[in-house]
# Entry
Amino acid sequence: MEVKRSSSTKTAVSAIIPFVLLAVMIGYVFGPGSELISFGVVIPEISIEKVEFVDSEIIATVRNTGPIAVDIVMADIDDMILPAAIEPDKHLERFESAIVRIPFDWNEGQPYAIGLTIDDGTRFEKQVDVAAPSIQPTIEMISYFAVIGTYVGIIPVMIGLLWFPFISKLSRSKYKFFLALTVGLLLFLGISSAEEAIETSAENLSDVFNGVLLVATVAIVSFLALNYVGEKLKKRAGASKLAGPVAIALMIAIGIGLHNFGEGLAIGAAIVLGEAALGAFLIVGFALHNTTEGFAIAAPMARTKLMIGRLAALGMIAGVPAIFGTWVGGFVYSPLTAVIFLAIGTGAIFQVIVLIMRWIQNEEGKLSNSSVLAGIAVGMLIMYITSILV
Amino acid sequence: MLTSGQKMFIVIATVSLGFVGYLVFPTMDITAQEQPEVFVTHSGAVVQTTGDVLDPVYTIQEVEFDPEKYLRDFDYGKVSKLEDGTTLREFTIIAEDDKIMEIAPGIFYNVWTFNGSVPGPTIRATEGDLVRIYFINNGDKEHTIHFHGNHPAEMDGIFEIVGSGGGQFTYEFIAGPVGVHPYHCHVMPVEEHIGHGLYGVFIVDPKEGRQQADEMVMVLNGFDTDFDGENNLYAANTIPFYYQHHPIQINMNELIRVYVVNMVGLDPINNFHLHGTLYKYYPTGTDLVPSFFTDMVTFSQSERGIIEFEYEYTGRYMFHAHLTEFSDKGWTGLFYVKDSSQLNTEVYNFGS
# Structure
């Protein structure tokens, strides 16, 4: 025991020594008094991430996205310097954010430029195309969003689940085809989630967040975490014959649920930004799209006995997050949270794809089967066509 | 017991959740808030905040350059008589270009200065006086002084570049013509040297003098603090909104004379609008008879003149650029007209 402890201490020390040396070197090269790296000019940067219009006040959320701390010292609307307040305080460390309240009688439907000036005199601006009253989380709005989330998330998934009897009557090779079809559907959803995440980060996130790498990192971490959870789930389910398919269906439902959360975010944010046309378009589009998700959940369970309760529960797991998504998107939208959720969804979907592929392989022995390949291709095509039709 | 794999998983999950949490909610503040602060909007509403107030209000204590003092500060130089009876006025002007000045509350800008301030000192002489200016350039860049007015070519401050780090030059000329003139650095690029603040006012009084008046100088200027080719701030005498929050006190029925010089760069025009009365306008101040009786004069770059007015009633009167963009960015102020026949015991509520 003694021996073991001392050896584990040694291990710990040997792990720490390189870190200590690295810290010393960094301190020497970059620390105070060092003149090795004194070239160049440090350029401060802030980003106005969100602008809200409330009663006689415009509220801007600002984040320090530059390499050094800054003070926000002046606010303006369309170049009009105005008395304002910043909460919690005007000094922003790196990545810190604050809320600037500018009392102003704004007019609905009019464009505004919100400007903030920092201590070195640099002014940063955010253009808002259309001023619309920001949506407050009242009971009516919460239930309104819940209804929309239900139409987009729950109902279409439930409709999709009705394919269950159809799939369960299929022959073995046709069944394989439909399982592979699910893979195709998910592949498309995964790519579209990733694209959405990268797009959102490019449009609304400051460069300092390394948008693409943020998406990749979060997606891979979520992929690995769900992989781990999935393995546990399977192990716990034990040798029961039913457990395998149900566990896979559950994982699919979770992955789709995360994806639907992202869809909810997009709808909520569009409604908040006053983009009514885009909001309506998204609702119809996602609703049509999401019936295929019900199919994806039903497919792996099709070889088991029909368990309506479980199937419905899985449908809820996949669909209900859309409601949460509309709430988050509508009431507490921030581009950073949106990107992170979309990236988590991406990782989750790819994890589910791996799961189904592994399952097909276990059942069938190989993946390069023609019905499997055809299934994936047809799945992708269906998704692509529905995505351009709506 | 947890396996090492599970431990690792928990550690990674905790670290990544913590990091994401920090990014999403970095403003979560567990310390208790102090007393809420209060500020007044331009339309008079009172707003309370738990954070900091962002409002370009300068207090006398904070200000490095005092627009109150500059307003009525005239430098007549060191006066002596030459043998032929001519008055000699000697001035020393030192240029620097390394000062960082708080030109609006919280905004720090690298100003280039004559005698340490923007604008430089208001130099004043009488027509026919011999003006001698000892110029020292203590800056890191080359500078000159170019006076508007009559003088020999070699006194024009164009080709006689004065080197950095203590370079010297003596400008000497007979003051004239009568009027109000700018002086400024004329080293290329002139836009940059003027934009950073190397300018001031040179007044030449007529020999017979002008009517007794409460005299003041207003240099209309602007600053492009982020170098995007557009001025971020405008003012009369450098500090935006200063006279708005610290009204200029004048007396009812007393003649007021303002020497107005437009030194705004980047924008082609500026203007001066006065409330509650009209003024006589003397373009460039070269004539003793006013050209206009108006409340609105437009100035091109470096255009200047003298305005004269009196108030019939007491109270607060605005003066500002009628270009709302300029007044919104700070070029606006107030005259507070008092009745000098009464004791000045009135408590005045500034800036409200």
Observations:
- Chain B touches chain A through 47 residues (CB under 8 Å).
- The radius of gyration of chain B is 26 Å.
